Each structure stands twice: as C-alpha cells, then as structure tokens.
Amino acid sequence: MKKTLYLIGLLSTIFTFLGSIFKIMHWPGASVMIIIGAFSFAFIFIPFLIFLKFKEVIFLFDKFIYSIGVVLGTILIVGFVFKLMHWPLATVLMLSSIVIFNFVYIPVYFLSRFKREDLEFNTIVNSVLMFSFGSILFALFDLTA
After folding, report:
1. Do residues 75 and 97 touch, judged by C-beta distance below 8 A?
2. H helix or E strand, kind and range, residue 14
3. What is the pLDDT of residues 37-69, one digit of tens each?
4. I need a surface site. Which of 6, 37, 46, 75 has the fewest CB within 10 A?
5. Strand stretches in 2-143, DSSP E
6. ∠35-131-16 over CA atoms, to 5°?
7. Which residues make Cβ contacts (< 8 Å) with residue 15, sequence separation at least 6?
8. Helix (H) or strand (E) holding 108
9. Quick check: 128 and 107 in contact, CB under 8 A?
10. From residue 7, how far is each of 30, 48, 71, 77, 130 by CA, in Å?
11. H or E stretch including 30?
12. What is the structure's pLDDT at 145?
C-alpha cells in the first residue's frame, strides 16, 4: 500500500510541476496537467495518506482532528487550482480554509494533543509550524477590496 501511495504522490507532483512549467511557457496542456496533478493529490493522495495514518492512531478524537485537517487542506488545494485557472470562488475557498485552519483547527489540535506528555514537544513544534505556514498564506491576501 505504501508503494501505491508513493506512486500516486510522485505522479501528482510530476503532473503539477510539469503543468506549472507548461503554464509559465504558455504551452498547450498546462491546465489539464495542473488539474490532474492537484486533484489527484487532493482527492487521492491525501485521503489515502490519512487512511494509512488512521491505522496507527488509537484515539478517536485524533482521527476526527486529522479528518478536519484533510478537508481543510483539500479545500485549500482546490482553491489554489481555482486561482490558477481564474475560476470564480477561488479567494473564498482559500481564505475560508486558511482562516478556519489558523483560528479553529490549530487551537483544537494543540489543546487536544498538548495534554499528553508523550506528544507534548511534537505538538508544540507542529502547531508553531502550522500557524506560521497559515499566517504566511493569510498575509498574501489583499483584504482591502
């Protein structure tokens, strides 16, 4: 199963990368490659990765937290694709997922895992990294319009 996961991840990365190069060069086929790569990453690779992670996780609330993270990540990736393709609702998708991620998901993640001594250090590091990443993405939006 892990080999399948690696193959899906590699193919979606290659399609997204080549699609980006094609889009920069204005070559035909760029949109199709980006859509295939990003959607296969968002709707196949990430859920498959979480499915494998669920086998390791014992606590039900951790599974719930991971599921919410997958949904928010998928919405963000779909928003990126919408933005690249100049489709409507791109900003709404990206901003809503980033705001919910920063101000709801990360605090719930932190509070649920910080209580356990074996996860304390990793929880702090992961929370800081996630909040930094989310804050940088949030800072990229022009909210004046």
Report:
1. yes
2. helix 2-25
3. 999 999 999 888 888 888 887 778 888 888 898
4. 6
5. none
6. 15
7. 33, 34, 36, 37, 40
8. helix 106-114
9. no
10. 21, 12, 22, 19, 26
11. helix 30-40
12. 63
Name the one residue in this structure whose structure tokens are 């895992």.
Answer: 113
* pTM to 2 decimal places: 0.82
Residue 94: HSE in the Cβ half-sphere, 13 Å Cα cutoff: 22
Helix axes 90-100, 60-84, angle to 10 degrees: 150
Write the CB contacts of 124 (distance below 8 Å, at least 6 apart in sequence).
110, 114
Q: What is the mean pLDDT of residues 98-117?
A: 91
Tokens 């649920």 locate to 112
Closest CA to 108 of 65, 47, 70, 58: 65
Q: Which residue has the higher pLDDT, 142 or 109?
A: 109
Whole-number Å distance between alpha carbons of 3 and 26: 34
C-alpha span between 113 and 118 (Å, rounded): 9
pLDDT of residue 142: 81
The first and second tokens of residue 68, run together, are 């919410």
From the CB of residue 92, how many other CB atoms can be counted at a distance below 10 Å? 12
Residue 96 has pLDDT above 90, yes or no: yes
